[in-house]
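Ops channel
N.P.: pipeline sanity check, posting one input/output pair.
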């Protein structure tokens, strides 16, 4: 059975962000992930993580102005300086909190725009170099356009091409089963084929993005395949609880 990490951006929203660490540990989780720690000093986040006895699985680089609709900056021509500064911030937080993985969000830009592509390539290389020096893994995640209209990285094969171009062992794919199913389907075969470059996995039911075992996929079969491909990392529970986080955790004892 895979090791599960609670996603504190979607789960345990019944309590404030800093209290979600203890709530996750009390519910039996051994690790957490979340979108962003940057509203709090890194030392405070690290303190809550350690006090709860949790491992950090992953968080994202600063995405630009999230409230204004930005979803990352890596593919945004003209925002290279902001991207570089976000990278500095992410690495500084990663060192204090102790995350093994950072997720680099691409941003909203046409996937076929040559300038966006060139900017993404340059920024990915820069992020690969900096995270490599820092001893931190870097992941990129294809995201479906229904949840995030206009997101640049909206195709798994394209993500594989970008990763191959960088050709650095610490740069890998964030394989979110929810996005995979909506974008392409073929979950089991793609897990097998992509196993060597999968750096992180996330799960949610499709199409409602709720608890596993409540959607159109056979999540038990998927968890068995994740074990079969030898994946050793955490599987992030990146789902919106249908009716309360604790109330919805029953799936964990059924898989
Ligand atoms: O939306 C997802 O899926 C994620 O994993 C986030 O990190 C990006 O919004
Ligand atoms: Mg995801």
């Amino acid at each position: 059975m895979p090791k599960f990490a609670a996603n504190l951006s979607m789960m345990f929203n019944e309590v404030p962000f800093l209290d979600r660490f203890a709530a996750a540990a009390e519910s039996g989780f051994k690790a957490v992930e979340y979108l962003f720690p940057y509203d709090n000093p890194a030392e405070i986040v690290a303190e809550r993580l350690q006090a709860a006895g949790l491992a950090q699985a992953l968080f994202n680089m600063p995405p630009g102005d999230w409230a204004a609709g930005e979803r990352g900056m890596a593919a945004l021509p003209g925002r290279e300086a902001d991207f570089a500064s976000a990278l500095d911030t992410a690495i500084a937080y990663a060192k204090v909190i102790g995350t093994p993985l950072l997720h680099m969000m691409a941003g909203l830009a046409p996937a076929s725009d040559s300038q966006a592509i060139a900017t993404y390539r340059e920024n990915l290389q820069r992020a690969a170099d900096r995270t490599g020096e820092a001893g931190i893994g870097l992941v990129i995640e294809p995201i479906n356009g229904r949840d995030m209209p206009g997101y640049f990285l909206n195709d798994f094969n394209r993500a594989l091409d970008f990763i191959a171009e960088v050709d650095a062992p610490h740069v890998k794919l964030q394989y979110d089963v929810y996005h995979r199913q909506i974008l392409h389907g073929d979950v089991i075969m793609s897990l097998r084929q992509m196993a060597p470059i999968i750096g992180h996995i996330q799960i949610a039911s499709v199409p409602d993005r709720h608890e596993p075992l409540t959607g159109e996929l056979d999540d038990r079969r998927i968890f068995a395949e994740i074990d079969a491909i030898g994946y050793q990392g955490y599987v992030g529970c990146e789902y919106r609880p249908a009716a309360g986080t604790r109330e919805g955790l029953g799936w964990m004892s059924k898989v």
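N.P.: looks fine end to end. Strands lie at 3-7, 31-33, 55-60, 101-103, 137-140, 171-176, 198-203, 234-237.
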